[in-house]
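Task card 7
Instruction: Convert sequence to structure tokens.
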Amino acid sequence: MLPPSNSQSEIQNKESNLTKTLITIFSIIFLEFLIMGISLGIIPSYVHDTLKFSNVIVGLVIGLQYAATLLTRHVAGKMADTKGGKRSVITGILLSAFSGLFCVASYWFELTPVLSLISLVLGRILLGVGESYLVIGIFAWGFSLVSPNYVGKVMVWNGMGMYGGMACGAPLGIWLTSAFSLPVAFSGIIIFPALSYAAMLLLKTAPVPLNVPRLPFYKAVHLVWQSGSGLALASIGFGGIASFITLYFIQHSWEGASLALTAFGAGYIVMRLFFAHFPDKFGGARVAMVSLLIEIIGQLLIWKAPNAFAGIAGAGLTGIGMSLVFPSFGLIAVKKVTAENRGMAMAAYNAFFDLGVGLTAPVAGLVAGTGNYSNIYLLGAAAAVLSALLAYFEYKKGVTEERRIETKLA
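Output:
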């Protein structure tokens, strides 16, 4: 057999390097969202059942993390574009690890619920800020390590890490709590960032472009607000599952609440693995419309679920539906900025996700009231309908632009 030609070897080496880069990026994001999943799996019941606070307080504790993330997206985007993605990632890892210390302290203040809650809130805020720096940093770093043709793949693998970690983290947190203790589960929030740091060392350092015009955050928001709004509305369905699915299952005396988050993550990842090329092939707006229709069905199924299986299936359909929404709207957003400003563009775009999920928790707590948790998923379905309308408007805009170009060329 003849040895491969130089050109073939170069292609194989590039593909191998790309795969290693994407897997490393996935690992860093996965571990960050694993600790977020751990906290989501145990904090709602801890605040509600152990510390004896209301559903509104549960929602506020969960939502504070996303509020902290939202409020620091602009500084994370600026650091990633001007100091480099690596600096931003390291900052995120350190802050995430420190958040675990406050969560452990919360357990030791358990007999004084107010102090315990304050410690937990501080931990949630630190985790939110850490997630902001890490996610934006890894996006910017990943974009700089691959060619422009693979920017979509960086988004796809980031997304798989996000929801894969979240899906695995929830059952892991519940298992660690039941098999060992709550402090052991909280300690995972300290330990896993160390593994993220080890994975980060495998990535090449990318040069930071100097003397190029930088996009202010408010201008980035203006450029991506339509795509971002669609993402924010679509994320409400996920926010409802992440924040209240455990209490929803407990209310109905169902087993397997953690499996609902696992089903969401599994549906999300399967779609990313096998259908990630759909936005490029069929257009982001068109894929978003179909995806959101599936999400609507999933949310309605949870809303009217007669048993645990239906609730888990609804969560799985929601994951399938949401999977391609992020890259579909995201590709539209990234195309509106230069390569040097993609970190800020992703910061602005992700800020809409934070806004959607962050508002979901307290609003869902109000909607649930004294225990009507099913109404949260009706809210998620209604929000997905509005998101689908925004996707439709983007689709119509694209069709109009294509016709204008065709007319100009004719």
